[in-house]
């Protein structure tokens, strides 16, 4: 196979991997009634003049399936961390005992579960659109190569390979969405 064609195929696969990874990260932020330190990974606050992620100024872990425990390395930061969690508007009510912060993740209502399920579906559709855009871009580049002398048969075979890759990633997205929706809807 032509070297340029291989580069385009590798690039398409790499970009599709990134789209899949992004989907998994976005779905990881959606809480399904279980406590997870990743729920707080986007929280950042001022730490000695630097905007710093919460995970770099405190130990964040889970005490049980529904409780997140945050133990700051400096006790004076406890109030700031508590304010940042409230400001992030995640629907959590942090409890500060002066040493650590506990967050009890509330049970999800049926209405909230359905809303989260719709959000999962939307994120999945966004990922599928990204995959299809990558397919379109790659096929456009292959057609340009065909105009520059790439054989028609090879061009057609590569376009088929790109479509197979797209179908493969679309089915992976469907499985991820299905698993997350099942997790959200289970009580």
Largest sheet: 4 strands, antiparallel
What is the domain total for the residues?
Answer: 2
CATH superfamily of the largest domain: Ribosome-recycling factor
pLDDT averaged over residues = 88
Helix and strand pattern: HEEEEHEEHH
At CATH level 2, the architecture of the largest domain is Orthogonal Bundle
* CATH class term of the largest domain: Mainly Alpha
Uncertain segments of ≥5 residues (pLDDT<50)?
A: none
Sheet/helix structural class: alpha+beta
Q: Supply the number of helical segments.
A: 4
In terms of DSSP E residues, the strand content is 5-15%
Number of strands: 6
Strand order of the largest sheet: 3-4-6-5
CATH topology of the largest domain: Topoisomerase I, Chain A, domain 4
What radius of gyration results from the CA coordinates? Answer: 22 Å
Distance between the termini: 51 Å
Percent helix, as a range, is 55-70%
Global outline:
elongated
